[in-house]
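Whether sequence alone determines local backbone shape is best considered at the level of individual chains. For completeness, the protein is quoted in full, as a sequence line and a line of structure tokens:
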Amino acid sequence: MAGARRWSLELLLALYTISYIPSVALTKLLSTRPSADLGRPLGGVEQLPANLMISGVLTLAFVLLAGWWREAAGPGRRFPRPSGWMILSGMGTALVLVTVPLSFTFEGVSIPFIQLLMRGDILLIAPLVDLVAGRRVRWYSWVALLLVGAGLAVTIHQRGGLALPPLALATVLLYTLGYFLRLFVMTRIAKTGEAASARRYFVEEKLVALPVAILVLVGLTLATGGGQAAALSWGFVRVWTSPEIGTLAVLGLLSFVISVFSVLILLDKRENSYCVPMERSASILAGLAAAALLAGFYGLPAPSRAEYAGAALLVAAIVLLSVAPRLERRRVSPALAVARDADDPVHPAATQAR
């Protein structure tokens, strides 16, 4: 990962998608097939504790072995010291860590639909974050947002509206809030395109996010009451001797891998209106692929025509975001390109100019 700065954004997206497909599929299987221990499928509250803790241990091991921890701590320090901005970002990331796996466990809510709904909210706020931060939003980013919005509208219309369980609605709202906080901080302090900045951000964010995610999970469980407290107890204690622990360990590993690719994509120096649709669309396509595989091999409901249509619009958005910047660069002279980059407040040329 130390050489990830040389990887293209398209390669990172491909690796992100490949990692995401089994993560979605395994989470959905655990929530639909009876557990040998409980005699019923595992709910999100029962799956999440082991997932978060295993992912946290792997993250700590990775940043220590890769030297990212020492780099984030800085000279003469043993531990990183997250700033107030990074604490805010970590809290936002904690909401994302809890709500993403939880979103795949709701009965009667398809994977493509919940993904389109959650990702659509993020795509709507991406250009707003750019505008607030004074970053330019280029024409192809706006067109891509329109394509993704159309895909979202088609799917919601086909389903007949937004009728969802209360916890599912809370999940969507908390996810949107978490991503807004994360994008805002990224844009303000870390979207420089420098590998060292991305590594430092990753370490400080996870240092805050992982313990806060556990607290958020406990808080959600206590707020809902009922049998959720017993489910949470099972997820923290009895899960380690259950037959499902192997699958949950794989999910923890995948969550860690996905988090690395995600932060490298989102911290690319280009505008949020470019990076966010790329990352979000890749996750939606991965969810659609997982749903199709579950339908073919395990008899779960297949994606609807409207969901496939929404995915087609997302593919168009990805192609546009990948091709348009290259075509634009060919039309712009090198001198004009330097001047344009100097207008970007986080670009190195702008820093030198000031």
